Amino acid sequence: MINVSEKSNTLRYARAEGKLKASPQTLQRILHQAVPKGDVLATARAAGISAAKRTSDIIVFCHPLPLDWVDLSFEVNHDTLKVIADVETVWKTGVEMEAITAVSAALLNAYDMLKPLDTEMSIGEIKVVKKSGGKSQFREELERPLKTAVLVISDSTFEGTRKDKSGQVIKEMLETLPVELGAYEILPDDENQIRERVSSLVKRENYDLVITTGGTGFGPRDYTPEAIKPLLGKMAPGIVEKLRDYGTQRTPYAMLSREIAGTIGQSVVITLPGSSNGARESMQALFPGVLHIFPILWGKGHG
C-alpha cells in the first residue's frame, strides 16, 4: 500500500459508469419486472453499494475507506442497461476504485439474473467519468512566482555548532511550488534582529512570502512569535490552527508550538517549528491551499 499518512482529509467524489448490452426484449423484462430471479435494478443497486464498501477486500492496494455516500442509478435504453455510481467521502485518498467497483458489481449481478434469458449479453465501457478532491484541486495558478524568503532562527545554527535541517526541508519542499526562493538566511534567537530582518524583507525588499523556522516553543530564547507579531497587520489564525491540528494528529508535542501567521500589506509571514519533522509536517499541511491567500491579497477575490 502507498503511505498516505502525510495527506490531509478532503472531500473526495467520483462517478463511474458502465454498460450491459442485451436484447431489447430482455431489457423490457427488466422494466416490467418480469425476470424470474426478481427485481434486477433493486438487486444490482444493493450489490453495487455493498461492493463499494468492500473495495479494499478486492483491490489489493486500496485503503479501507469510511464512505459517506454511495448511490447507483440506471438508464434502460433500447439495447443497453447503463449503470451509474456516485461515491463520496471525506478522507485522504480518492474514491475512483470504489465507484468502478460499484458499477462492476451491479453489472455482474444484472448479468447473472438475466443470463437464463439472453445468451448474447456483454459488459463493457466501465470508466470513471468524473472525480474531485485532494490537494490537486486546490492548486493555484498564480500570475507570477512568489518571491520567498526562508529564515532559520537558531543561536546554535547561527554559531555553527548545529547543522540546519529544518530550513533545508523547507527549501526542498518549496521547489515543487510556484515560488522563487530569493533569500535563505540564518539568524540568532534575537528578538530585535528577527523583527528588523522580517520588516526589511517585506517593506524594503518586497518579498511576498516569508517563512521562518525555529524559536516558536517555550525555550528561554524562543522569541520568534514575539518578534513578528507587532509587524502583522492582519492575523491568520486559521493557518496556525491547521498547523497545530495536523501536527497533533502525529505527535501530542505539537500543541506546545506557538506559531503565528499573518499579513504585512500584501505579504504573508508564517512561523514554523524548528525541528525538521515539524517543518516538514507544517509544509505538508500548508501547501498548496495557503497559496489561495495571494489572489485575495492582490484583489482578485476567491476566483
Features of this protein?
303 residues, alpha/beta, Alpha-Beta Plaits, Molybdenum Cofactor Biosythetic Enzyme, Chain A, 2 domains, 6-stranded mixed beta sheet, 4-stranded antiparallel beta sheet, 11 helices, 10 strands, 35% helix, 25% strand, elongated
Task: Give a brief rundown of this model.
The chain is of the alpha/beta class and 303 residues long. The protein is built from eleven helices and ten strands.
How does this model look, in words?
- The protein is α/β, with parallel strands linked by helices.
- It has 2 domains: 10-134, Alpha-Beta Plaits (2-Layer Sandwich); 139-297, MoaB/Mog-like domain (Molybdenum Cofactor Biosythetic Enzyme, Chain A), CATH 3.40.980.10.
- Helix content is 35%, strand content 25%.
- The strands form 2 sheets. The chain has a 6-stranded mixed β-sheet, with helices on both faces. A 4-stranded antiparallel β-sheet has the order 2-3-1-4.
- A hairpin with a 3-residue loop joins strand 2 (69-76) and strand 3.
- Helix 2 runs antiparallel to helix 4 (96-114).
- The chain is elongated, with a radius of gyration of 27 Å.
